[in-house]
Amino acid sequence: MENYEIVERNLVSKGIRLANYFIDMIVFYLFMLTLGVFIAIIGAESVLDVLDSPLGNLLSMILYALVMFGIEASLGGRSIGKIITGTKVVTEYGEKPTVNEFLTRNFSRLVPFEGFSFFGTLGWHDKWSNTRVVKAKPFDTEILNSNSLNEIGNQM
User: Fold this and answer.
1) What pLDDT digit, counting tens, does each position of 17-42 carry?
2) 97: buried, middle or exposed (CB in 10 Å: 19+, 13-18, 0-12)?
3) Checking CA distances to 90, which of 10, 60, 77, 80 falls within 20 to 30 Å?
4) pTM for the complete prediction?
């Protein structure tokens, strides 16, 4: 329960969340540009035609969820945007999210109008995956201090 309170004290603002989103979208668009150039170089223009259709929009959304899942899972809850803004994803109890929580978090973004869920307290992709975005350094420091105090208390 104590870690839950630490998470709540270190939640980032909606402005930082928006900055993370914009930075991550730029990274994703650069990835897509690189992929498009690669597809054009190998001469698979028919793939580019599919990507420029309604089906392509759906595929792009799924690819975005997969890319973000891969980045966050491999970088311990951080995306490029989160690295730049000094934030990270943790569970609501301050632990590193599991692979399933990262999957739920990122595929929840495919739900129509999910972005509007941030007009409430939490975005749906945070609520459904039981994750939160916190300020990394203050959070890590507070967790370390809390764990140190608990260890001292257990030794007595």
Assistant:
1) 999 999 999 999 999 889 878 878 88
2) buried
3) 60
4) 0.84
